[in-house]
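Exercise: predict the fold of this chain.
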Amino acid sequence: MVYQCRDCKHMFVAGQLTSEQLTDMYSNYYPRTDFNVDDYVPHKEKNGFLYWLDGEEGYAYRHVPKNVRILDIGCGLCETLGYHKNRGCEVYGVEADENIQKIAEQYAFNVEMGLFDAKKYEPESFDYVTMDQVLEHIVDPLMFLKDVNSVLKPGGKLVAAFPNSGALGRFFFGSRWVGWHLPFHRHFYTKHSLGILASQSGYEVEVMKSATPSLSLLLNWGILLYSGKKGQKASDFLLNVAYNRTKNTMNKNSGRGRFGLFLKKIRFLCLSMRLADLLGVGDSSLVILRKQ
């Protein structure tokens, strides 16, 4: 059941999840178990027209300068860690999915497995904290944002990308909107509700806007057309679309897998996402918060 605040329009999922339940969910029901470590490739610098067309501005890690100290919460396949390391940054990661431990070990990344715990870091020790599609997973966002604030240096910045609850896709795709992703997603923020949370947890809002990776709309059509039975992992289509930024070849020979890769290669529907962001109704929001 999803509830909504009458005043700020913030939406949230009823019920609580323990740390053990969350770790189990990410380790056993996210499609990373079959990832081949040898296929790992860090994200690369990107600019110009393709940067804009692909909606790269919608990724939090793209808003971090070179040569700073970063904590990436929810670092996934560690592609962002390699990206930052290659740009002269001192980078640390946090990840609940235990399947990425093998990547962190092979490439000597400093990753804390499990959920973010501020007590494991020196206070006021990071220039930037980044979160790509993580904030919506947090059970207690106010306490979480306060904890993140405690590890940021004075004037340090939190950059986060998360589903836009005012997205046009939410109304068009209905219950199959990619932003719902229940039960993993717990909170759905509006500008008003996130502004309140930022103020209460010690931040000043520098940027808050619709900024959506073009991948989002393609994934949503994949969910609509190729959704499997309840409890199953993502389809070949979704796996290939989500992971083709690496050399990963899993399921590449399936019809759905090849189709997904083809659509992403030709940048299917990218322009529609740029228009949606311009109107403030893209699938994803980006916020930059500065520690007061």
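Check your answer against the key: The chain is about 35% helix and 20% strand.
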